[in-house]
Design brief:
CATH topology of the domain at 130-239: Four Helix Bundle (Hemerythrin (Met), subunit A)
Helix content: 55-70%
CATH architecture of the domain at 130-239: Up-down Bundle
Length: 241
């Protein structure tokens, strides 16, 4: 029993000693630092100085490569006009090029509207305005196509004669109200407008001949033209009865 008490007392003494050593070490860590340490803060204009420095401006817009429009302006100024590139010369060239593009587009639209589809397909011997137009445009009156046909036959221009014959036929059908001529319509549209089935088929055949001769460069000599002319004449007799 006494031996047990001795062991307990010895254990208690050892435990207390270890606790004291640990507390001593902890106390040593929390000792105040060297008194020579001085806490400092930045000057009042510290941040402002860096804000004004361009090297630290990360929000500025980066210079982009010149586009096609700028390249064209620069090429015209420096290569054609021998003018040094500058902001002022660039602005002047902007105005000149914009004006040129606007006038070009307006001129192109004017030509397309005025001459419509027939402008693309015009060939020799054909006028551009008024009654001299080879294609029927809904405005020619009287025997204008008869006179043009006579002249084409005298000059032995049989390709032109076929085109004039077809235009005269459209004029006759329009005047008889068998078709309603419109610039946007095709020859196929007129085939469907003719109510008489026999006339519709005959007109379709004549339209095919006209296409071959006018746009397919089908050769027409005097013998071939006589046959074509007879076909046109027979059809017109039926229509104008």
């Amino acid at each position: 029993m006494r031996r047990l008490i001795k062991y307990i007392i010895l254990f208690a003494l050892l435990f207390c000693q270890g606790t004291i050593l640990v507390e001593g070490k902890t106390t040593g860590i929390l000792l105040p630092r060297d008194s020579s340490y001085v806490m400092r803060s930045p000057d009042a204009d510290f941040l402002e100085k860096y804000r004004k420095d361009a090297h630290f401006d990360y929000e500025r817009n980066m210079t982009t490569a010149p586009g096609l429009w700028d390249w064209i302006k620069r090429w015209i100024l420096e290569r054609l006009l021998r003018v040094k590139w500058s902001d002022k010369s660039s602005q002047v060239m902007d105005g000149v090029l914009y004006a040129f593009v606007i006038f070009f587009v307006l001129g192109l639209v004017f030509l397309i509207v005025k001459h419509r589809k027939s402008f693309v397909f015009r060939k020799r011997g054909e006028g551009l305005f008024g009654e001299d137009a080879v294609e029927y445009n809904g405005e020619q009156e009287g025997d204008v196509f008869s006179r043009m046909l006579q002249k084409a036959e005298q000059e032995k221009d049989y390709t032109l004669a076929v085109r004039v014959s077809y235009s005269g036929l459209l004029q006759a059908l329009d005047k008889k109200q068998l078709i309603r001529w419109e610039a946007s319509k095709t020859n196929r549209d007129y085939v469907y407008e003719i109510r008489n089935p026999e006339w519709s088929r005959a007109f379709e055949d004549l339209s095919r001949i006209f296409d071959y001769v006018s746009y397919g460069d089908f050769p027409v000599d005097e013998a071939v033209y006589r046959n074509i002319k007879q076909c046109f004449a027979d059809f017109r007799k039926e229509v104008e009865k």
